[in-house]
Design goal:
CATH topology of the largest domain: T-fold
Structural class: alpha+beta
Number of domains: 2
CATH class of the largest domain: Alpha Beta
CATH superfamily of the largest domain: ApbE-like domains
Distance between the termini: 64 Å
């Protein structure tokens, strides 16, 4: 009888323990901004997590329609009106991005430049698959450089705007995804979700944790294959990587990637990939592009200006450039890398 009571108690204990087991991590995915968006939600029943995912997918679809630079929509309308030189009312769905773009471009010394949509178009990188393309004629690039479109060409007065330069064509590809992730993550919080990751093609924002454990994020190797390292997130952070492996084409044996240096009109040289950590995805997205263009010689200065506290840059020789705070955060998969450590970034990490 005593043995039976013991067995019954053990069974009851197991059942009670099972009641405290958190739900498994919910994982969903959908297409948006030309890439696959993965969403992971911890601590929520599957039905509720699926309902939240459906809402966020609708958010992303709406943002994609509003911010696409070539398809019909609010941003396309803005780009057409910019060419007239006249004053017009900016759509509410686009105006916040324009304002953020102006500020971030200024902080980056113009290396992050959403005004070069015509140059992106000239290279054919408005297409998700640029295979089969070739470099544009030098004369066409020279004309774009002479026109020098930049975000400071835009004049804003409330919702009224105009451009001093008709060559400005806004392309939010270098930070629209980050801004969209920020908006979607805030929507998740409004829905009561405290632990989640939104990952759009390897660029992500994470909040909370994974059932009590930090979210562990793999950083893609600049070759495009395998993992360079792993980073554990803290509370609420965004991790964004810009790499030359993302969209590119090969012409006469030379590879051309999609991250265009607005100073030269050509794909930026000297960098293979840049990973940054910041508290908001919008800044992280823009900074990853700006630091990629700045390259191994100038990334530190631009990171300081943009308020970035964690940077990992892989140069064209495979050397890893990072600040001490990032070195403490990243767990490299290979100890054979040559590391060039910068002085500490004086900005507070994540702010």
């Amino acid at each position: 009888m005593k043995c039976l009571k013991t067995v019954a108690w053990l069974i009851l204990l197991l059942l009670l323990t099972g009641c405290d087991t958190p739900p498994p991590i919910y994982k969903g995915k959908f297409l948006a901004f030309g890439t696959l968006v993965d969403i992971s939600i911890a601590g929520l029943p599957e039905r509720e997590a699926q309902a939240a995912t459906d809402i966020i997918e609708d958010d992303f679809k709406r943002m994609h329609r509003s911010w696409h630079a070539w398809d019909p929509g609010p941003l396309g309308r803005v780009n057409r009106l910019i060419q007239t030189g006249e004053t017009f009312s900016a759509p509410p769905s686009v105006l916040p991005l324009i304002k953020r773009g102006i500020r971030l471009s200024d902080k980056s010394n113009g290396l992050f430049n959403p005004a070069i949509g015509q140059l992106i178009d000239l290279w054919g990188f408005h297409s998700n698959d640029p295979n089969g393309h070739r470099p544009p004629p030098q004369a066409a690039i020279d004309r774009m450089l002479a026109d020098a479109p930049k975000m400071s060409d835009l004049q804003l007065d409330g919702i009224q705007m105009r451009s001093n330069n008709p060559s400005v064509k806004l392309d939010f590809g270098a930070f629209g995804k980050g801004y969209g992730i920020d908006l979607a993550m805030e929507h998740l919080k409004e829905l009561g979700i405290q632990n989640a990751i939104l990952n759009a093609g390897g660029d992500l924002r994470a909040i909370g944790n994974k059932n009590g454990e930090p979210w562990r994020i793999a950083i893609r190797h600049p070759s495009g294959e395998g993992v360079l390292g792993v980073i554990e997130t803290k509370v609420s952070e965004s991790i964004f990587t810009s790499g030359d492996y993302e969209r590119n084409f090969t012409w006469e044996g030379k590879r051309y990637h999609h991250i265009i240096d607005p100073r030269t009109g050509y794909p930026a040289i000297g960098t293979r990939s840049v990973t940054v950590i910041h508290d908001d995805a919008t800044t992280a997205d823009a900074a990853a592009t700006a630091l990629f263009i700045a390259g191994p010689s100038n990334w530190y200065e631009i990171a300081q200006r943009m308020g970035i506290g964690y940077v990992l840059l892989v140069d064209s020789d495979g050397i890893l450039h990072m600040n001490p705070a990032m070195q403490e955060r990243v767990e490299l998969t290979d100890n054979s890398y040559t590391i060039k450590l910068s002085p500490p970034l004086t900005t507070k990490p994540g702010h």
